[in-house]
Amino acid sequence: MTRPDAMPVKGCCVPQRDTAVTRAPDIRPATAGTAAGDWGVPIPGGPATIGTDAPVFPADGEAPARRVMLRPYRLDAHAVTNGRFAAFVDATGYRTEAERHGWSFVFHAFVPQGLDTPAPEQTPWWRRVDGACWSAPEGPGSSVADRLDHPAIHIAWSDAATFAAWAGGRLPTEAEWEHAARGGKPAAPFPWGTAEPDDTGTLPCNIWQGDFPHCNTGADGFVGTAPVGGFMPNGYGLYQMCGNVWEWCADTFRIRSLSRTAKTRNLTASEGRERVMKGGSYLCHRSYCYRYRIAARVGHPPDTSAGHTGFRVAYDS
Prior knowledge:
Elements: E1 40-43, E2 46-50, E3 66-70, E4 73-76, H1 82-92, H2 97-101, E5 103-107, E6 126-130, H3 157-166, H4 174-182, E7 210-211, E8 215-216, E9 246-252, H5 260-271, E10 275-278, E11 298-300, E12 309-310, E13 314-316
């Protein structure tokens, strides 16, 4: 296994589109059934430690550790499910970025055999699949009918923000997300504490086991998404804050550094209107994408979608 401090600083396994962002339609807020009180778990406010002084990927802006003050808020106990997202679509007629673009990225192992799909040069384990979207995760012919309790995927930031407003909430800030993920353990690198996941016996979350991107042993029981209530919750009663799917935050992506590299990265992020994603996914592994740590972060444009991008909703108390 490669040591984290020896790993190359690569962009995480979230590919980006090279097309213009489309404009999402206006959606009226929900009036019943998906109100904030139906979903949010109370999260205490007060001082919170965000970031880390021991970054694994300094270029991602994981450092420095800093103290912030937060108001009390509420956060979904788990990522928004296919079932809940389907109710939103039924009520509003909303079409996601993936549907408006006509395609999204599907992990190569899930692409139907015989389908000719192009692969991004930098992330060849992804395939562009026409028709792939939240309701057809692997493309035409696939369905979420048997995955209604799994997280909705192929979700772009703009999709997540629209749903959150409809549900009477908003996307969490990065600080709120990290504070909630720690579950009352300010120094913990993971929602469950300090135990490092491995490929055999310590399996506290849904990430990759084996040789990425070729062989996932599925030792944790899953090779793709898992039901949102799977694995143990953290101290606040929140499920799968790390692993399973990447989760969008409200914040624009920015690195807190005056270095030339950081300035260049921030300029790129600003031009692309990039937003923060947290938590890693079922494709993360310590040998490559060691970003299922709470302090880990990446930034991507708001129309980015793939087979492991999801979200959860925050609510003001």
